[in-house]
Amino acid sequence: MFPLPEPMRLALDAARSAAQAGEVPVGAVIVREGKVIASAANAPRALHDPTAHAEMLAIRAAARILGQERLEGCDLWVTLEPCAMCAGAIAHARLARLYYGASDPKGGAVEHGARFFAQPTCHHRPEIYSGIGESEAGALLRDFFRARRG
Questions:
Q1: What is the pLDDT of residue 56?
Q2: What is the pTM of this model?
Q3: What is the DSSP secondary structure assignment for residue 123, as one 8-state letter?
Q4: 146 φ, ψ to 5°?
Q5: What is the Cβ-side half-sphere exposure of residue 133, based on CA atoms within 13 angstroms?
Q6: Among residues 66, 67, 68, 71, which one has the least CA distance to residue 55?
Q7: Crossing angle of helices 6-20/54-66, nearest 10°?
């Protein structure tokens, strides 16, 4: 087994922070030219904002830091397959590459559900790499929901 790339390790750290705060454990990191630009953890409950997914918060932060709405040349690393809202934001931000850990058969929109980037109306398609850190990300999610049910 190979060690996880640093951006995915950081995304998993953010996901753990989200879980500790009572949020669904998802973390996201945006990288440009090998440098971390932004990182975020899920925070819909804390921010009272249904759009405060880790990806959305990381995209917003990176756009502020770079002073532009387009994040061309940037990569997004996230622990869970993005939903339709986040996939739309990824396309609008013009992110170059999407790396994600666990698949989400219920809410994901990349390889499941809407398959957002496969739609003919999608105006930008990042390169997509799935399954990176999948076991760790999946375990975080399973443990979080098991504790909530239990």
A1: 98
A2: 0.96
A3: S
A4: -65, -40
A5: 25
A6: 71
A7: 120
Tens of pLDDT, residues 59-114? 999 999 999 999 999 999 999 999 999 999 999 999 999 999 999 999 999 999 99
Annotated active-site positions, please? 55
Q: Report the pLDDT value the prediction gives residue 2, as an integer from 0 to 100.
A: 72
Look at residue 1 in the predicted model and tell me its pLDDT: 58
CA distances (Å), origin 59, targets 28, 52, 92 = 9, 11, 10
Pair of tokens at residue 125: 């398609």
CA 129/CA 98 separation, integer angstroms = 6
Strand order in the sheet with 97-102: 35-41, 27-32, 74-80, 97-102, 127-130
Higher pLDDT, 3 or 95: 95
Amino acid at the residue 70: R
Q: Look up residue 40 and give its two tokens.
A: 């975020």
